[in-house]
């Protein structure tokens, strides 16, 4: 019964994760339309690619026992294709991620010869990548708080991130696999926080506060101008007094 329930949760996790990975399609359509990346960063998508690479490898029989984590292979394999399509122009970063993954994959295949050790290696690195993927939106959340606008934090991305984290957390706990459950203990609260921020700022227009440095420059300029006027006034008075003295003496 537990195995069936776990597989059902895994396939529901597949559905929500697909929506999560596909959510940026509208964002990239906007980038293509405007021919500008604006405030969007490719880093979250690069981290997501690394997460997908490691958990696809983790789910394969090379690392896991037979096909016990088959749902992870299907969704993360699809995630690799989607994330690559999003960041294919970031050639150096993409190449570096693939090289790093290849090194870990080769080590797990030829250096270690039992499933337990392979799972610890691949799952440990995948856990770090997964936590980084869920933590990446913290930069966007900071932007939301500063501007009081959710323009750069789509609701669909926040919602599916929260739902996917909950489902994969349940999947990991049902299979007693902490390497799957652990990163989602971070992802679920962060997803909930994104949703709360969205609810708070969804109806507010973007505020672009004037940088403090500009005000400081204006103050300095005003102060400098006053000093110049004072110096000019003193100089003029001195000239007048000197001319009066010359007239009297003559």
UniProtKB/TrEMBL annotation:
Q: Name one GO cellular component term.
A: endomembrane system
Its domain of life reads Eukaryota
State which residue ranges cross the membrane.
45-65, 86-109, 121-140, 152-174, 180-199
State the Gene3D superfamilies in the record: 1.20.1280.290
Query: What Gene Ontology molecular-function terms does this entry list?
Result: sugar transmembrane transporter activity
Q: Where does the UniProt annotation locate this protein?
A: Endomembrane system
Mention any Pfam family matching this sequence: MtN3_slv
* InterPro entries reported for this sequence: SWEET, SWEET_rpt
Which keywords annotate this record?
Answer: Membrane, Repeat, Sugar transport, Transmembrane, Transmembrane helix, Transport
- Topological type in the membrane: Multi-pass membrane protein
Tell me a GO biological process for this protein.
protein homooligomerization
Relate the protein's function as given in its record: Mediates both low-affinity uptake and efflux of sugar across the membrane.
Q: Which family does it belong to?
A: Belongs to the SWEET sugar transporter family.
Instruction: Name the chain's protein.
Output: Bidirectional sugar transporter SWEET
Question: What lineage is this protein's organism placed in?
Answer: Eukaryota, Viridiplantae, Streptophyta, Embryophyta, Tracheophyta
């Amino acid at each position: 019964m537990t195995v069936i329930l776990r597989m059902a949760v895994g396939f529901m996790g597949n559905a929500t994760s697909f929506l999560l990975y596909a959510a940026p399609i509208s964002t990239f359509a906007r980038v293509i339309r405007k021919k500008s990346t604006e405030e969007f960063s490719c880093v979250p998508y690069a981290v997501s690619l690394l997460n997908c690479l490691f958990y696809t490898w983790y789910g394969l029989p090379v690392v896991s026992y037979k096909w016990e984590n088959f749902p992870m292979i299907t969704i993360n394999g699809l995630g690799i294709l989607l994330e690559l399509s999003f960041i294919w122009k970031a050639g150096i970063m993409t190449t570096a991620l693939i090289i790093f993954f290849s090194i870990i994959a080769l080590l797990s295949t030829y250096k270690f010869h039992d499933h337990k050790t392979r799972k610890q290696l691949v799952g440990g690195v995948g856990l770090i990548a997964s936590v980084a993927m869920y933590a990446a939106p913290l930069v966007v959340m900071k932007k939301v708080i500063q501007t009081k606008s959710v323009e750069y934090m789509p609701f669909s991305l926040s919602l599916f991130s929260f739902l996917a984290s909950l489902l994969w957390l349940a999947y990991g706990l049902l299979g007693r696999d902490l390497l799957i459950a652990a990163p989602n203990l971070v992802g679920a609260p962060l997803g909930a926080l994104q949703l709360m921020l969205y609810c708070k700022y969804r109806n507010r227009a973007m505020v672009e506060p004037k940088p403090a440095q500009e005000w400081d420059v204006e103050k300095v300029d005003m102060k400098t101008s006053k000093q110049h006027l004072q110096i000019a006034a003193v100089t003029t008075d001195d000239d007048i007094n000197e001319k009066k003295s010359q007239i009297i003496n003559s």
